[in-house]
Amino acid sequence: MLRVEKILISSEEIQEKVQELGDRITEDYRGERPLLIGILRGAVVVLSDLMRCIELPCEIDFMDISSYGSGSTSSGVVRIMKDLEEDITGRHVVVVEDIVDSGLTLSYLKRSLLARNPASLEICSLLSKPSRRKVELDVKYLGFEIPDEFVVGYGLDYAGSHRNLPDIRIVNPGE
Ligand code: IMP
Ligand code: MG
Question: In whole angstroms, how large is the CA radius of gyration of the chain?
Answer without folding.
Answer: 16
